[in-house]
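Teaching note: in complex prediction, the entire set of molecules is handled at once rather than each chain in isolation. The prompt given to students was simply: 'Predict the structure of this complex.' The entities are:
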Amino acid sequence: MIFFDKVSKIYSPTSTALEEVSFAVEPREFISLVGQSGAGKTTLLKLLLAEEKPTAGRVFFESTDVHQIPKKELPFFRRKIGTIFEDFRLLPNKTAYENIAFAMEAAGKTPEEIERDVPQVLELTNLVDRSWHFPDELSRGERQRVAIARAIINQPEVIIADEPTGNLDPLNTWEIINILKKINELGTTVLLATHNKTIIDSLGRRVITLEKGKIVRDDKEGRYVM
Amino acid sequence: MVWIKIKRILKAGFINFWRNGWVSLATILIMVITLFSIGSLFFARAILGTMLSQIQDKVDISIYFKTNAPEEDILSLKDSISKLAEVKSVDYVSAEQALADFKERHKDNALITQSLEEIGENPLGATLNVKAKEPSQYEVVAKFLEAQSNSPSGSDIDKINYFQNKLVIDRLAKILDSAKKLGATVSIILVIISVLITFNTIRLAIYISRDEIGVMRLVGASGKFVSGPFVIEGMIYGIVSAAITIVLFYPLTLWLGPITESFFTDINLFHYYISNFGQLFLVLILTGIILGGLSSFIAIRRYLKV
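The expected output is the structure of the full assembly:
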């Protein structure tokens, strides 16, 4: 469903983020992208979200070239992808509930749908008693769970998680990973970028290893090898 | 569906306005200053306008006739002067009227009253007071009068005070003209500066939210859905600022009213404020809404590119 076709991203002559990267993602896969900082993981995810344009090559989502989507239709495309970031990226002036509801409002869902779905997701992410708190009143783990709730509320086909546990302690890390596993079991493709060795090794799923902008390994039941 | 979207955008605008408390307050303060300067312009224009018309009203040309000038000659001259396009009005003051006015003015001065009685007959001649539509037009009127006084029928004319007052009138015309121009220039510059400051303040307020805007875009919000609440917020700034400004003018004009009345005689700022309240409020609130909404709209565009 996702296909990177010889994608290169060159920011400046001295900094090449990605070099002729090609790989395909099947529906319902759980893929880990590993590599050191600066290996190109974030750039790769940004290209998929059409946040950046590739210098060469093409990125397909289903059968559409992501970078040929007109600006006006970009929001519709992005609603098919849920995103989770290391720094949470919640809206600071909105409560947990409102942050999640915002994604639905933006997608044009009715108030009835919002009132029905948001509490469900809050329950799934174990946030029911925190729903009226603002992000700065929540712990990091709670904030990340709000971000996950927001990412999955519109039932996207793909979840992109860029170092979602980078800022969390081990307990919260496992909680987040377990939620991601559960989401994947329910049928959503997950793309997880991380450099946490224990997570990768325990998952036992496909691992793509990036090094200096190139794919060096792509294992079906991979482990973290550096 | 469209209605739900509009409702959400409005609601989000109000919530943002409320939750961004300090930023809103700072922006409103700046905007109040802008609207205040625009409102002051409104009042300044009124004062200047009244002052100018008062001064212009005082400028005139007087034609003094000899005491023996026949009244019908004077009236026929009056008619021909009235026909000039530049002339606003011509007042005829007869010799008797002039004497009565003179006596009235000097009724406390025993020496003058006595001298008048001594003379026995009326020493004063009739007068025509000519007013032009614009101060600069006195030149034309004066030329016409000069030609008249040099013609045989002009032998009745004793003197025309324009030629004595010419310098003063000319200078006054120039001063009035440049006061108008200077006033307009200064006020336009003032308004431009304050508009720019307001625009920058709103831009700064949106700059603070630039990360949020990026997040909204990534979550899949359309450009209008992201920018809508900011534009609404800007408009609320405008409405609140206009309300504050118009309230501020109440005590200010109440205080300035009597002062202006004794200084400029014809205008009381407080009465002017009360009688033009609706118009002033409309000007301020529209300026506020347009300024706030448009500034937000322009400022947010650059952050929507993600």
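Point out the following to students. Chain B touches chain A at residues 1, 4-5, 8, 15-16, 19-20, 211-212, 214-223, 225, 306 (CB under 8 Å). The first helix of chain B runs from residue 2 to 19.
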